[in-house]
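From the methods appendix. Each design record in this collection lists the discretized structure first, followed by the designed amino acid sequence. Records were kept in a plain field format so they could be parsed without special tools. The example shown here is representative of the layout used throughout.

RECORD:
C-ALPHA CELLS (489 positions):
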C-alpha cells in the first residue's frame, strides 16, 4: 500500500500529464504477469490456491443449502474460473449433472467427456497463459501508441482509449483461445460486485454474512493498484479539458482522490463487517478487525495529502505538507509491515521458543521449532526458511520504497517516472506478499485436519518442486464433509 500512494503530475499543459497516464495500463500489464508467476510457484510447491480462495464460498454455499434443505443449482461461485490446472477445472454444476444423468450410451459418454475436457482446458488459467497475455497486452499498448500518435498524429489520451478499446474487442471475440480470459473477467466483475455488496440484513436484522477470503484477497490486490484508480479518474478530467490544462483547483483532485481511496474504503468496510460479526458472536479477537480497519485508514491520508500538495503554490506550505506527508507515510509503512508479518503471514508469534524449545511440552511443537529461524517465523514454511526470509526482507525494503523521494531528482528525470517506479515496486511487493498470504491461509484452513506427520515442519529447497507432504488438499478425503468439498471442486 505505502509505495503507491503518491500522485504524479496532475496539472500543466494538456499533453504532459496525459503522457503520464500510460503508466496505469503498464502497471496493470505487469500485475497480470506477476500473478502468472504466483500461479507457477503455487503449482511448483503444491499449494492449491484455488481451494484456498474458494473454501469460504463452498462453506457458505453448504450453509445456505442446509438452511434451504436442498442443494440449489446456481452459478454463484466462480470456482472454475480461477482454476490453475490442478485437477479442479470442472464446476459443481457440471459434476452434479455428470453424476445424476441416466446411463448414456458409451459413445455419447465419451463424446461428452472429451468435450468437457476440451472446454475445461480452454477455461483453465495457467501461468503460461497469464504471462503470454501480459506480453500481448504490452505489444498492443506499444502498437496503439505508436500508430495513433506517430502515424495518425493523435493525442496520448486518444491512444489510451484506443488501447482499452482494442483489448475489450479482443476479449469479446468468441475465440476458444480467449475463453479463459472471458471467464476470468466475469469472475472479476462478480467479485467486484461482491466488494460493494452490503452482506447484511439491514431490514430484517440478523447477522451479516462473513467476508470470504477471496474477496479479502481481491480487495487487498486493488489496494496495491490504488494509483491506477487515481489515474483513471484523472484520465476523464484530462479528456474533459483537453487540450486545455486541468484547472489548478481543489475540485480537480476530488474525483481522482475518491477513486484512489475506494479500495481502502472497501477493505476497511470489510473489516468493520467482520468486527460486527465478532461482536455478535462475542469473539475475543474481534478487536483485530478494528485494528485492521485503522491500518487501512492510515493508507488514505498520504494519498489525499499528496494530491492536495499539487494544488499548493506557496513553497512554504509545500514544505510543511512535505514533512507531514513523510510522517504519514512512515506511520502507514510501519503499521502495514507489522501487520504483514504478524497477521497476514502468521510469523513472529513464537519468539520465546527460539532455540528449539517447544510450547506446552508438545513433541510435535518441539520438532517444529527445531531451528531459531522457524521459531521466529513459524513452524510450517512451505517455501522454505531461506525463501520466506528473503520475501520478508524484500517486503521490508519495498514497504519503504517511498524513501526514494529523497533522491528523486538524482535518480529520476521527472516526478512521473518516480511514481511509475514506485507503482512497479508495489506490484512486485504484492506478488511476493501473495505467496506467503495464501500459504498462511491454507495452514489456518487445514489446522487440526492433517495427519500427525503433516503437522511437523514442512520445508523444501527454494524453488524446487516438493516431493512429499504437499499442502494441496488433493489427498483422499477422510470425512464426508471433506469428500463433498473435493467433489465440489
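DESIGN:
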Amino acid at each position: 500500500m505505502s509505495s503507491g500512494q503518491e500522485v504524479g503530475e496532475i496539472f500543466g499543459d494538456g499533453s504532459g500529464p496525459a503522457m503520464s497516464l500510460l503508466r496505469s495500463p503498464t502497471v496493470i500489464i505487469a500485475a497480470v504477469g506477476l500473478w502468472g508467476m504466483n500461479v507457477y510457484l503455487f503449482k511448483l510447491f503444491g499449494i492449491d490456491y484455488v481451494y484456498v480462495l474458494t473454501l469460504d464460498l463452498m462453506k457458505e454455499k453448504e450453509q445456505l443449502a442446509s438452511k434451504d434443505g436442498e442443494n440449489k443449482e446456481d452459478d454463484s461461485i466462480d470456482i472454475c474460473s480461477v482454476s490453475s490446472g490442478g485437477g479442479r477445472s470442472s464446476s459443481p454444476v457440471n459434476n452434479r449433472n455428470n453424476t445424476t444423468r441416466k446411463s448414456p450410451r458409451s459413445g455419447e459418454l465419451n463424446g461428452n467427456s472429451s468435450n468437457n475436457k476440451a472446454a475445461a482446458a480452454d477455461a483453465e488459467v495457467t501461468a503460461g497463459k497469464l504471462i503470454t497475455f501480459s506480453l500481448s497486452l504490452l505489444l498492443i499498448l506499444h502498437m496503439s501508441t505508436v500508430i495513433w500518435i506517430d502515424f495518425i498524429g493523435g493525442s496520448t489520451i486518444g491512444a489510451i482509449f484506443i488501447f482499452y478499446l482494442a483489448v475489450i474487442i479482443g476479449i469479446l471475440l468468441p475465440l476458444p483461445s480467449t475463453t479463459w480470459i472471458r471467464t476470468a473477467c466475469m469472475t472479476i466483475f462478480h467479485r467486484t460486485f461482491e466488494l460493494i455488496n452490503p452482506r447484511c440484513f439491514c431490514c430484517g436484522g440478523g447477522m451479516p454474512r462473513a467476508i470470504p477470503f477471496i474477496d479479502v484477497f481481491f480487495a487487498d490486490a486493488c489496494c496495491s493498484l490504488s494509483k491506477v484508480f487515481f489515474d483513471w479518474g484523472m484520465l476523464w478530467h484530462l479528456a474533459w479539458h483537453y487540450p486545455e490544462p486541468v484547472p489548478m483547483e481543489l475540485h480537480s483532485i476530488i474525483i481522482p482522490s475518491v477513486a484512489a481511496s475506494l479500495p481502502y474504503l472497501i477493505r476497511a468496510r470489510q473489516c468493520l463487517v467482520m468486527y460486527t460479526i465478532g461482536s455478535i458472536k462475542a469473539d475475543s479477537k474481534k478487536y483485530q478487525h478494528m485494528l485492521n480497519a485503522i491500518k487501512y485508514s492510515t493508507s488514505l491520508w498520504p494519498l489525499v495529502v499528496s494530491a492536495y500538495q499539487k494544488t499548493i503554490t506557496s513553497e512554504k506550505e509545500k514544505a510543511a505538507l512535505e514533512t507531514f506527508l513523510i510522517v504519514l507515510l512512515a506511520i502507514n509503512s510501519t503499521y502495514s509491515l507489522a501487520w504483514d508479518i504478524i497477521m497476514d503471514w502468521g510469523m513472529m508469534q513464537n519468539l520465546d521458543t527460539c532455540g528449539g524449545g517447544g510450547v506446552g511440552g508438545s513433541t510435535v511443537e518441539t520438532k517444529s521449532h527445531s531451528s531459531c529461524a522457524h521459531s521466529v517465523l513459524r513452524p510450517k514454511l512451505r517455501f522454505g526458511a531461506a525463501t520466506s526470509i528473503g520475501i520478508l526482507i524484500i517486503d521490508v525494503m519495498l514497504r519503504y520504497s517511498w524513501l526514494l523521494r529523497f533522491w528523486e531528482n538524482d535518480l529520476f528525470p521527472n516526478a512521473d517516472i518516480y511514481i511509475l517506479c514506485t507503482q512497479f515496486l508495489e506490484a512486485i511487493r504484492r506478488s511476493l506478499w501473495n505467496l506467503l498470504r495464501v500459504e498462511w491461509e491454507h495452514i489456518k484452513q487445514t489446522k487440526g485436519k492433517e495427519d500427525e506427520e503433516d503437522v511437523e515442519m514442512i520445508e523444501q529447497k527454494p524453488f524446487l518442486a516438493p516431493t512429499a507432504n504437499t499442502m494441496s488438499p488433493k489427498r483422499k478425503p477422510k470425512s464426508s464433509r471433506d469428500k463433498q468439498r473435493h467433489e465440489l471442486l
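APPENDIX NOTE: Residues 171 and 182 are 6 Å apart (CA to CA).
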